[in-house]
Structure to design on (574 residues):
């Protein structure tokens, strides 16, 4: 495994990577969710590139950029163990040099849900992902279902801009008690951590209601809200039942729906989601 | 020469093009300006791809999209003569399918000059050029100095987004009386056509003033304005003396400057520019 810190080195090294090239972009502080993406990339490609870059442009002015968790040594050890070929670890000044002023934006998909709470977040995501795709030039790129809206937006962007690669969405990896793995879980106090599985439990409640025939989104949302509100540490930011492609809010669920939410525990925002009406196998956001 | 009309065909055919690949994106209705780009591409590359696509997103709501001049048969004959390998001629519905919603924007460089008159123009240009670059994947792409701001913006975009290609800017080609070649010149009435060289003459006036030592931008702009205003058919939209990299307006010219203008003749907008203080050889916007 080689660690590359500059764009010219990455561009040069890329020339000798065997095709197909699988790519996993991360912000580091890796957990089993990331590792499941790396393993999938390893399975499906001759070369695997993982980037570790805490992208400043996807953090809002009041968000946790400076205290975002970091542990490069541990990250590298984990990636070595999964036989990644390249870790791309660039510096801010190379990614966003003085005078940087070009942005990639997706209009409608970025407006609801996370976009409503974090208005500049997805512009930062689509811009850094475009840059990384242009630098790494992967055949396949791997993203987690846990950030469902992000995955949909990146798929839309690659299609709209005719990017020459495939986006693969992999299932959310959870702790034994159901909490979706996230680098931000480290922010939770012991009490908050105990309460945090309420997100997934409320999603399972939605799943059960759907399974026994409930199709009225308002009824499901109401039950989920009541359930989460029983947990005094949890403050709901949004709960949504939306179309799995357009993210338009649904009144009646037909074939399928994305149930997604953001819930705060103190200053920590947790998100989670589940797809109703489709197989929960790895390909469910992959059409 | 092969004419390709779909994105999948272009992607497939691209696999067999010999490297390096030179690319000239056009809106058709070709003239000697375009042909000089094609010749330069032919000189510098093993394969030459020319696109002909009238990009709707770079036209404003009141602009001349529907009556933009077209002559595919003549264009193809001209390109055949210059030994282009591929003409990529896609349909609107393939480039911007229903639900299209992804944009590439460059912030500061797009605001002054043309951006001030045409607020959504450059967003359309950077978006279509990104798409065409992703589809054609050229080694070198050729643009005309006549659209100086566009050339600077595209260079900035390719740098900022780490696009893996070189942008080459080639000199403006002029009619014998100095009028810069443009597909839009066909809109001019005979009288307007006679008057139109006033743009270039005013640029030469600026060049002469600079040559004898004038460095005060206001003095040069004043002389140019008086000169153009003598032509009753010409209505100045802007005249500018700006930094050749940032496009910031200059008060005093130091080493170099971009003198640029937009002048209306009836409904027809003509633009032209000249660089002061650098060689007027082909590389002057290429650093």
């Amino acid at each position: 495994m080689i660690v590359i810190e500059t764009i010219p080195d990455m561009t040069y090294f890329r020339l000798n990577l065997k095709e197909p090239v699988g790519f996993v972009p991360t912000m580091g502080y890796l957990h089993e969710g990331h590792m499941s993406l790396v393993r999938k990339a390893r399975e499906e490609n001759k070369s695997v590139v993982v980037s570790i870059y805490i992208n400043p442009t996807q953090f809002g002015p009041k968000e946790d950029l400076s205290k975002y968790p970091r542990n490069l040594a541990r990250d590298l050890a984990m990636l070595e163990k999964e036989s990644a070929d390249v870790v791309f670890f660039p510096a801010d000044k190379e990614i966003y040099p003085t005078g940087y002023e070009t942005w990639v934006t997706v209009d409608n998909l970025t407006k609801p849900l996370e976009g409503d709470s974090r208005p500049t977040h997805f512009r930062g995501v689509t811009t850094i992902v475009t840059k990384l795709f242009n630098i790494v030039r992967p055949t396949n790129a791997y993203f987690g279902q846990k950030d469902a809206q992000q995955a949909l937006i990146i798929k839309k962007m690659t299609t709209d801009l005719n990017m020459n690669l495939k986006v693969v969405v992999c299932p959310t990896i959870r702790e034994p008690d159901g909490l979706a793995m996230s680098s931000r879980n480290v922010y939770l106090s012991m009490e908050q951590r105990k309460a945090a599985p309420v997100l997934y439990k409320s999603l399972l409640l939605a799943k059960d209601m759907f399974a026994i025939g409930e199709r009225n989104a308002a009824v499901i949302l109401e039950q989920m809200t009541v359930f989460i509100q029983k947990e005094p540490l949890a403050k709901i930011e949004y709960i949504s039942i939306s179309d799995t492609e357009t993210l338009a809010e649904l009144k009646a669920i037909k074939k399928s729906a994305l149930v997604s939410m953001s819930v705060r525990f103190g200053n920590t925002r947790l998100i989670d989601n589940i797809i109703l009406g489709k197989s929960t196998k790895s390909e469910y956001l992959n059409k």
